């Protein structure tokens, strides 16, 4: 369950993604339910093609583990099981450990068990109506991270119909794994974009900073400012403007509040999180959106996790956490 961010890059990086200038070479493919672009700063075309092929293989493997639609994935096998007694890959177990920790530390603002709500809203869009109270109550019985028990090999569940969706955390973990490989590939530097997740590694040939402009949630063609990313940092963005359902001509965005089963309405339009742990950045961008501005800033101040954030409110106001204020320039 994840949103697509339109990431607009400054001119130098844009040219690199297009395969122009500074020896930049790029490839784009569709995996994990999103368009993925890998840009490498190298003049060695043979090396670049080999690396692109390996990148794709790495992501195919992660997609085969965490996809909700592939019947042989860990997620599908678990969702189809009676009690969760399914032996899971160590990478899935590690991701679930992070997911459950974030859920606990955010009081459930992030929750991988919201799949029944997602499915309910999709069905209601097809029917052209809002969810009924009894439908929401039925979904509530099948959600709640606290009902799950993680063991050394599996994730136990109390009800057969409980289902998980790793779409709100899996892309961050996958992009982190991809960057770890690219850092050993012999390429000077580059950039990876999953749409809603962006990461950079190494350096640009001209020594320039990696600069990324964030989309204006209220203007598909506009931006709100430009940030710099450092090697190893991963950016994840959640917004209310990309994925949604339409019911009676009204948009209902896909970032659901686990407490209500309805789209979160806490005054935020977009949240960008920057961290070195991709799974953490991914999960927190959703959690902070669900929390709202005041709770999100208080959570940042608590120091539970190392991250920075940019919060864009519905009224257009922007809050930047103190550790990132000197690396984000707001458009005036």
Name the features.
332 residues; alpha+beta; eight-stranded antiparallel β-sheet; four-stranded antiparallel β-sheet; 16 strands; 26% strand; disordered N terminus
End-to-end Cα distance: 33 Å
The profile of the biggest β sheet is: 8 strands, antiparallel
Helix residue percentage:
25-40%
Structural class label: alpha+beta
For the biggest β-sheet, the strand order reads 2-3-6-7-10-13-14-15
Order of helices and strands: EHEEHHHHHEEHEEEEEEEEHHEEE
Pick out the low-confidence regions: 1-21
Number of helical segments with 4 or more residues = 9
Give the CA-based shape. globular
Strand content: 25-35%
Mean pLDDT: 90
Q: Could you give the count of β-strands?
A: 16
Structure description:
The chain is α+β, with helices and mostly antiparallel strands and 332 residues long. 33% of the residues lie in helices and 26% in strands. It has helices at residues 11-17, 45-66, 74-80, 90-105, 115-127, 133-140, 170-182, 278-291, 293-302; strands spanning 7-9, 24-31, 34-41, 149-150, 155-156, 189-193, 197-202, 210-216, 219-229, 234-239, 244-247, 250-253, 268-275, 308-313, 318-320, 328-330. The protein has an 8-stranded antiparallel β-sheet with strand order 2-3-6-7-10-13-14-15, with helices on both faces. A 4-stranded antiparallel β-sheet has the order 1-8-9-16. A two-stranded antiparallel ribbon has the order 4-5. Helix 8 crosses helix 9 (293-302).
